[in-house]
Fold these 2 entries.
Entry 1:
Amino acid sequence: MTKITPADIDDYSVKHGIHRHSVLELFAFEAFARRAAQVNQPFMLKGSLITRQYLGPQELESSQRQVADLDWVYIVPVDTNNVNHIRVTLDNWMLAVTETHIDDGVRFRSFSENRFWRMIDYAMDDDFPTVNTDLLVWIGGEEFEFSLDVSLNLKIDPPPVPLLYKPVSGEPFHLSYTVPLSLQIAWKLHQTIVRPRFKDLLDLIWLLRNNQIDIAAVWRALWDECQHDKADINLLKLLLDVDDPKAPGLSRHPLYTRKIKGYRGALINPDSLDEAWQSWRHSSVGGYRNNLASAQTTVHHVDLLPDNVYDVLKDIAHELHQSGLASLIAAIGVPRVDKSWRNICSRIFKNNTTSS
């Protein structure tokens, strides 16, 4: 096993033009995942670490996608009324992972020394609770602290898939439970329906461009998500409307135009959608006046992003067409989610449910 040294951290930072803190974060996340793989309990890895595993060579070479968080899902259903049992289950997992020794130049503080789950009692009031804790790690002798999230009772359909995880340092390792690509894409499409974010559009472009997609599985998972929260799946048609550069479909999203009372903004709602893109792309602090994180929290090299939002929207429309998902979106005739998935989509799945 290759040991991470301070020189490795510096070299990776310089080679890829990435802030040293981001390198430490990536190394810490992957070291935790490596240990979790050895412990092999029913916890599924999702989020940006998995997104990176499905990127193409161009995005990986430029280290374009940042890792912003470390997200896990406990895939065994739990009784949220039994908080003590949940706490013990999570504690035992964290103890096993943080006390697993691997000779890779990384050492975690045992969870026994700072055993806590932030707001765990209050979190159990949610349908899909998420709890959070903090971990301390030494990477090449350098101390680093980060947070970790675990979600509970989250429906995972299609089920978790095994993955040979390829870290930036050290040998690949096998994870028994990771979020399926089809579900990852469905979640990002659902996010675009309910609260469009530029980072999800970029992820969708990269994931659709570089992978073979089971569009039937994507659509089934997306349909279930929309049925659960009554999200209007018809809004995805806005992503296909890119005929007019001055008025792309996404600019008419009800959240962007603030047609929903109390909305505080996934997009900052300036005079144009492109102005929102420019603010997100160039601002080092983000549009926090409307709760918008900056591009620098999503990608390492903002200068590699398209100059204007219309190029982004053309790319997402193109990838939706190439994958076959555009045909499903166009087939939606009523802007509601109360018709069955089969009634709307059966004719599209007669011959082929996959597309490259």
Entry 2:
Amino acid sequence: EKNNLNITNITEDTLNVTEASEDPLEHTTFYPSDYTDQNIILLCVNEDLQKGVFIQVLYYLVFIFSVLGNGLVLYVLVKYRKLNSVTNIFVLNLAISDLLFAISLPFWAVDHATEWIFGNLLCKVMSGVYFLGFYSCILFLLVMTIDRYLAVVHVVRATRGRKNYCAITVCVIIWCVCILVTVPEFVLTGVMEHWDGHMLCVILDEDNHRWKLWGSLQHVVCFFLVPFAIIVYCYARIIKRLISCRTHRKHKAVKVILIIIAVFFLCWAPYNVIVFFDCLEELGVPLFQECEEKRALQYSYYIIRNITYFHCCLNPILYAFVGTEFRKSLTHLFCRSTSCKKMQERTYTVRNSTHSCQ
């Protein structure tokens, strides 16, 4: 309100001077406090975009699909005791990380719709849970790729090293690393009142610029560039090994691998490009000086970030439902009716007859 009153007074003084003098700027004094960088930036903020219904609906959709998909993965793995393999241990932890990420989305949907109404403690908790799920998801995708690489390319070495206790140890290390990385988010995040009276859940540290810059660099380098380079290398070696093998299933395996790489790149690369641009802005590189360019960057950020969120819905399809054993367990789960059992028995009889004729 103070800034608005000052701007109004300046406007009235300017009009009065215009009538008395040919040069309207000759007797006009401008105060730096009335024209801060914050006020200039606010002119380029699209409030309709931040309060848009589309973002809220999309958050709820991602939440629903992620809970259904990853919840089903957890249920099947626990009910049918499929945790006797290294791959399933990693799939279980990936599903947990996706669920952690998805749990925070309804809170951010309400925040976008109105303001942060859940208090300071939940602000800290949801910020920590959000980044914990975000970072752990990337690392579990990475170790699953390395595990596949060892199982296909280095079969002998993998036979000795791919033990369940090794997988559990790796998972514990990943969770510990991600918790340590998200501690600053939990400690520094809190609720503050915006200049327009709305309550925000933001970083409260005085040196906000430094933490934002460090977070952007950490996100781009440690949680995208390095993992993506390792994933591409591992899958390239896997494809090379599969092509050299004489098996009719290699083409399907190669297709699945290419789909996994494409989905990972499409979901994470655009988002990290936007984060990198934001990092350059924090360093003072004048990439986007015009207001329209800043608004275009905001639109790109919101759209690309929402595409990235869908990755937690796709993980169950790519890493669980594709597996043969998991599909069998899923079929057994949904096929408990008498008609379905009869169909399975009939199929089993036909297969046995075919094999006996051969």
